[in-house]
TrEMBL record:
Keyword Hydrolase on entry: yes
A biological process term (GO) from this entry: carbohydrate metabolic process
Organism superkingdom: Bacteria
Keywords: Carbohydrate metabolism, Glycosidase, Hydrolase
Domain Fibronectin type III-like, first and last residues per copy: 575-645
Listed name of the protein: Glycoside hydrolase family 3 C-terminal domain-containing protein
Molecular function GO labels: beta-glucosidase activity
Regions annotated as coiled coil: none
Membership in a protein family: Belongs to the glycosyl hydrolase 3 family.
Organism listed in the record: Halalkalibacter suaedae
Amino acid sequence: MDINQLVEEMTLEEKAALLSGTEFWKTNPIPRLAIPSIFLSDGPHGLRKQSEGADHLGLYDSEPATSFPTAVTVASSWNTDNLRKMGEAIAEECLHYGASVLLGPGINIKRNPLCGRNFEYYSEDPFLTGELAVHFINGVQSKGIGTSVKHFAANNSENYRFMGDSIVDERAFREIYLRAFERVVKEAKPATIMSAYNKINGTYCSESKYLLNDILREQWGFEGVVVSDWGGVADRVAAVEAGLDLEMPGDTWEFRKMVIKSLENGSLAEETVDKALRNILHLVKKSSELSFGTPFNKKQHANLACEIAKDSAVLLKNEDVLPLNKQESVLVVGDLFEKMRYQGAGSSLINPSSLITPKKAFDEMQVNYSFENGYRESEESSDQELMARAVEAAGSADTILFFGGLTDYAESEGTDRATMKLPTNQLELLSKLSATGKKIIVILFGGSPVELPFYDDVHAILNMYLPGQHGGEAAAALIFGDATPSGKLAETWPMEYQDVPFGGDYSKNEHELYQESIFVGYRYYDQAEKEVRFPFGFGKSYTTFSYSNLVVEEMGSKIKVTCDITNTGNVDGAEVVQLYVKNNQSDIFKAKKELRAFDKVYLKVGETKKATMTFSRTDLSYYNIDLKEWVLENGLYVIEVGESSDIIHLRDNFLIDGEKEVDSPYNLENLRAYYHVDRNFDVTPVQFEGLLGYKVPPLPAKTPIGLETRLSHYNETFLGRRLYTSILGVANRQYKQALKLPDGIEKEAKKKNAVFLMNILQSNSARTLAAASAGRVPLHIAKGFVALANGQVMDALKMMLKKEKTIPLPKASSTTQKSD
Ligand code: BGC
């Protein structure tokens, strides 16, 4: 394939076609020039390759594939081998099913525990996120499959993701939100990057030349394809000019028309389009060299998913009650025992190749147990009869294993959680069970932290997160001591939601103000000395470890740190050794300490091994907003090595000197709140705007309704309300139909889909509905909706009935189609 030659030979229609996707998941083929189409597919915790009905919501079925533990889970293993192996295995499934690009990993930072997509992201810490993502991408790409690192950038909330503006200061943007992206671009060279739906400081990511060209390509040297998120393009011409190559899902003929018109009238330079085409053609060329249809070992992949789940689970509390003895009789309570939640809802939903729930695992292991559902996972309120039965059974039990957590109704893509609490029915039941005074062990499932008001009343808590399709087998192995928990939290668990900085403002409207700046997660709790439920890096084991012999070696630009770790307990286990660096002599505001390296060490009883951790001196730099570059400050740096961010066992210092002295870009007086972060963290608008460097504009007016208005705001006008009700009617009807089905898996799945659809519909705008519909809702119909909602009935009719000449795709016949 001679790429330059092909670009030269292409007609404008062909060029516009190749700049966009088709049939939801494919690039456009150009048969005249023998350019094939390639398939891009979700993930990322397994392959979601849809064959028939296509959507980006996880509603239609996909080919059976291994459902691996989701990002939050595997991140808690702190084991980069897991990421690599999982990446390789998923790539083998891509090869089998014919997908050239896997849409993942998701590497956004967990800024707030309520983000509906936290289960799809690794951590609150950019270093840990970057390190894990590099290994995942390397694993996938080692088999020739491309990755699509998403969602670039500052996409940290869901409610307003389609039109929201992430208002963030440049330093936090670089140090927290871009850092992992920078690392993976430089070290793992992902084939593609997916631009996020949202705006950053007023500009849609898909139209930001600063983000897509200046930072991504010029500063970081990215050479792959920038793909839009599905429906994430507002102005196709502005997007291509900014550096967005491929618009997905495509089949939006209006966008192709805009591109052709702008090329014809010269307002869009052909070279700009050609550059994007060359990027896309490089990917098509590479992908067309792959051989598809190769078999993969289903059993091996399922076993790998199980091993990773075991290595990732986090033991949050244990008063010497775990592990249990298989012969001991236990009372199991909780619907999630049978209906394990093992993956998140939305575009990452996988059709698992096999499923082992805890119930199945207990039965196979012949555990001596009796079972009560206790609550219904599909409900929020208690079922009095189920609850009473469980409480009665508890009366004659010694040990109660409670299976609970966040259900698909409580957490999903497309919407942020309204609360950090567990569903009411579970809380009520737990409080009744604990009143019996019996030994209670809680096994938690879910993708994000929850409040644990029952913490003091239970004897152990094992957090499985979302453990993938064999999560039940993993849970059973850990509960009965066939495996030792060794996961550590990759995120802080606050005591209560009210402890989260600026939590009250989170995801409430189109403006997401990143007022905490760099103080995200432990960087805040540490500095404010706020008590948390579990600190970053926390996790217990069935064994104990000792730390000794810290050695710090300066090796040119690198610093190598080693120490000895000994398993001092009675069972084999693994310890995640964490290295934090402090530099508090600075005259700029900084976090108290930051994670710079880690090593997971597996140890037999009595064994000692060396943990080795290396980082670069430049990793310690901060981003100077005046100079627009990273600056390494002279001074004394403290190395702290420990088992979590708050339990440090070994310390040493090293000095950095001889670096160029640079003035602080900040005025201490104007930014007091950032220099003295405390429990109140009282950032005034003036301070935030001082840090930001501009005045936060007013929120967009709710009326008149525009193409970018959130559909839920259509309620503001009379006709808008009717339109909104009829759009939501689609989901309502689906829900009612689901309720009529007999009890069972199909009913549950259909109910969940309807709820998910309802949430997603509310948060769209007319423009995103059209752009994500793959041609089903043409843009002129969406414009008609807007006019109608504003009461302009005649204009609306004109727009909707307008006969427009569509632009045929090269793959279709050359006759012009009429839109209707
Ligand atoms: C999600 C992406 C996903 C895409 C395709 C979007 O709504 O944000 O993460 O890859 O759909 O399903």
